Every structure is written in structure tokens, then in C-alpha cells.
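re: ur msg from earlier - yeah i can do the 1,3-dihydroxyacetonephosphate complex, just paste it... oh wait u already did. ok heres what im feeding in:
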Amino acid sequence: MKKLIAANWKMHKTYKEAVDFINDFLKEDSIDFEKKDILIYPPFLYVCEVLRLLEKTPIKVGAQNAYFEKKGAFTGEISPVMIKSCKAEYVLLGHSERRHIFKESDELIRKKVISSLEEGLRVMLCVGEALEERESSLTFKVVESQLKLALAGLKDYANMIEIAYEPVWAIGTGKSASPEDASKVHSFIKDILKDILGSNTRVLYGGSVNPKNAKEFLTQEHIDGLLVGGASLEVKSFLDIINAY
Ligand code: 13P
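and the outut:
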């Protein structure tokens, strides 16, 4: 399976910093696009401009979130229709920061998933357990429940869905999961996905990925890519991760 390396910039970068990043990134010609797909999730405000700058490249662009309604009086929200109208291909949903800081429920995430798929966006759904859940040996239960609640009944869209496994305790902490442990969870996720979607879906790992540990993750049998936060903010470290494998 072709690996997918994705950058989640979260709420980082001014407009100029975003444009400079893309221009610097485009000066590099070291990426083997036959071997991997590259995807960037800039903050909403810059999605259209980043797309324009990357128009003639194979690099894909996505939005970090979406509301489920198509349009209306929802001040501050962005709909899948709007994202699609900018020609972005992807949307990231269910990120742990959305679940925990903004209290998004599984039910809300499911509505966002359905609405985005209906608009023709590729959905990257994030799942992952919190530290207390891991310590209570609930990792597999939590992940299974998040997957089922978001995706049950969506078989028709199976080829539009990707998963990012991001253990909450590993995000932004410098404490990544061990590649072997992550791979076990990925294998479990793939079994669940075969049940509910009937498909062989790419499953990315996210949580304190850096240029030093990227290769170890990417060489695990069940890890099909990486979702990178902090280490995707600088061109050099993002490229080092991309080229680690
Ligand atoms: P870090 O790579 O900064 O740990 O963030 C991971 C993440 O949340 C990507 O979506």
C-alpha cells in the first residue's frame, strides 16, 4: 500500500509563514511521489491559497475540520460544501483536540463524516485512547467504539475513508507509542474496518512523530503512513520525515 504522510498544522502559522513554508517546500525535489502521497492540513483561512500554490503538484490539501450542515446561520463554522468548492480533497475529523477541548461527541463526528462523504470529500477519521483508558487496558475497546460509532453503515464510501490512530497521551508530548504497540492497534483497526466497511483502509499513526522515529513507524507492517503535528511545521523536519522511508 502506498504510504501517506500528512502534516496537521493545527492553529499554527501566520499567512506569510504558511506561504513561505509552501514556497520553500516546493524548492525541494527529493520526494518520491511514486512511493508516497503527501497531504497538508493548513488552518482553514489558508486552505484556498495553499491549494493554489500546490495546484501543479501531486501534493494534496485538506481542511482540519468541517461542520455537518451545508450552509446556514452557523457563525464561525465551515461546511463540507465550502471545502469542496475550494477544491480541497480531504477533511480531518474527530481529532482528539476536537473531541477533548471542543467536546465533540461521537454522534456529532458521525454527522460530520456523513456530510463530508456526501460532498465527495475524503475523510480522515482520528481515533485513539486517553491515558486513563490505556492504563485501564481499554485501548482496543475505545478505538473499536469510536470506529463503529463514526462509520457503521458507510460501506458505500469505503474507498473515501482513511484512519489516523492517535493515542491522546502521545500527542504533543514527545512520548510516542512504541512502533510495535502502534502496529498491533493498527492491525486491530484494520480487522474492524474489514467488518464495517469491507475494505482494506489505510491506517496512519500520529503522536510525537519526528525525523528520528519516522522510519521505525513506517517500516511496521500495519502502519500505512503518518499524521504529523509539531514536526511538520518546519520544512526540513517534515521533509526528513517524508524521506525517512
Ligand atoms: P504531534 O505530532 O505534535 O504530537 O501531533 C500529532 C497530531 O495530533 C497530529 O494530528
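cool cool. The domain at 3-242 is CATH 3.20.20.70 (TIM Barrel). ping me if u need the other ligands too
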